Structure formats: structure tokens, C-alpha cells
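Example record used in the benchmark description.
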Amino acid sequence: MITFNYIGLSGETAFLETNGTTIWESMQVKCLNLLVDHPLYYHKNLCKPHKDMVLFCLDRQHVEFVKEFYPETEVQFLPTAGNILLPENGEWKEAVAYRENLVPYGKREMDVVFIGNYAPLPDLASQFPTQTKEYIDYYYRIIDDMIAHPKMSLHKALIKNLKDEMGELSVEDLKTGMEALVFLDLYVRTYFRAKTIKVLAEGGIKIHLFGKDWDKLNCGKSENLIWSGGQVDSVACVKAVCNSRICLNTMPWFKDGAHDRVFTAMLNGSVALTDDSIYLREQLTDGKELLFYELEQLERLPELAGELLHNVGLAEKITKQAYESAWQKHTWEKRAQKLEAVLNQWQ
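Model output (C-alpha cells):
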């Protein structure tokens, strides 16, 4: 059984036997469970290890986190991969065939696309679990620390702040403390997502936004924000990338992993413009297969995007090199080969 984010492994009644065990356990079904979020979001699941399950994390620091705090769970690294559009009948057998069907770079209709939802920060703050001034102040101290140190992973930032506040803590207290603060992850990610979009728009770059609630973003040059009108499905997302020159990405606080937006851009002829991670820096070269920007230097974003938009030759060279790299190493077929190898070890 292959699943994502513990779906089917979270006590759903449809998958429970009358004695309370899961059908997967009673039938000794091997389970491959791919997490696309930080493992902290699944603390309760991880506290009940499943003996016939292998957990896959998309960030190597997440893997080390599970090994340290939930050692009874078998865990491996499996990054995300890029998405492509399949033809109505059959599949793409060759990389050349798919590339030849892409819209040429110079004929694409959108300069920059961003795919992802937005939520106003005050709305997120209103949902903090405890609203007393003491707790609110504590939450914002952690938020400020994460914003000031954007290279630090979520769990390392939470551990640091928990220890600063309460001194040395047991492993169990650290786990429950981190779980109680995991909601801050969304706030910090949204802060940088909104700031990145605003810097580009206010720097004169038009951005097509695909996701919820971007009409609520307070931007000094809102005329440069072209909103799709709401959330769109995965197919529409890939189609948007296929018609864009630049695919903007902000990493969801994965400091040693990747996001599928990067590889999807590479596979669909759009230049990925993204903040970096240790893993991405190892796999890809800045200026060759994509462009990196730094969260600490967002003011440079309009310049980076502008250079790509005005230097079509450079952009086309990057998209060609990106496509070849992604097709060779970062498709879901390549990830499936890793899953197959794990299954074969069980035989």
C-alpha cells in the first residue's frame, strides 16, 4: 500500500478491524508512507509505530529528526519530483517528444507564475491556540527568530526557543512542545511568501497568482498581481507553468529538500526562480538549471526576474539544461524506482 501523509493509517474506521487493529496490520500489508510535510505534523501517528511501514521524508533533516525522536519508525529520504501533462492516450516514452510539445519560451503568455495559497497574517494570528498576551508575545519571539534565521529548520528553531524559555527538557517534553508550536510554521512560510510576491510586484514585475485569497494581499502595486480567482487543481497548475517564462517558488521551510514546483518548472520549460536548500544546491547549479535567490536579500528579486525576461537567450539555455537534468533525475518514475527497491528488500 502506497499512501501520503498517513492517509489510511490514521485510524479511519474504513480500515479498522473489529478488534481495533488496521486491515494492513492484520493482513501484513507492506505500507510505503510518503510525507510531504514536516513530521511534526504527524506526532500522534509517529507515537504509534507501524511495524510494516517505511516512512519517506522529502527533506534529509526531517529524516534525521525522525531517527532522533521516533527511532522505532523506519525512515528514508525521498524528494518530491516534477509533474508533466500526459497525452490523452498513452504516455511520453521519450524526453524529446514531451519537450517538442511545449510552448516555445518566446511565445509564452505569462512572465511569472506563482502557485500556492495565501492567508493574511492577522487571520493566522487570530487562530493561535492561546490568545493571552504572555503566549502571544512568546509566539512572536519565535516567529521573529525564525524570520531572522531563515536557514534554520523548523524543529531546530522550535527546540532552540523551547530551551531558551524553559531550560533543558526531556525528549518527550521536547516532542510535545514542538507539536504544540508547529502552527508557527504556516505563519512564517506565509510571511515570506507574501513578502516575496510584494517585492516582485512593487519592483515592476507582473505575477500571475494561482491559489486562494491573493485578492487579500496588501500590495503597493496591486496592478501587477493577476489573480486566477481561486484555488485551481493540479492539472491547471501544470498548464500555467507550461505557459510561463518564470515559475517563482518559495520553499515551505524545507532546508535540505525540494518542492515539486522546482522540478515541475524544469520539466515544462519555465525557469525556476527559488530560494535554496542544501539538497537543491547539491543537485542543481545556480544560473545553469535554475536561479536561486536568498530570503535575506529579497530586494534583488526584481533584478533577477528582469534579467531573465529581457535575456531570452540566457533563459532558453537554462530551460534546456534544466529539462535534461530533471528528466534524467527528478521525475516520479525515478522516485518510483526507489520505492520499488524498498519493496524488493521485503521479498
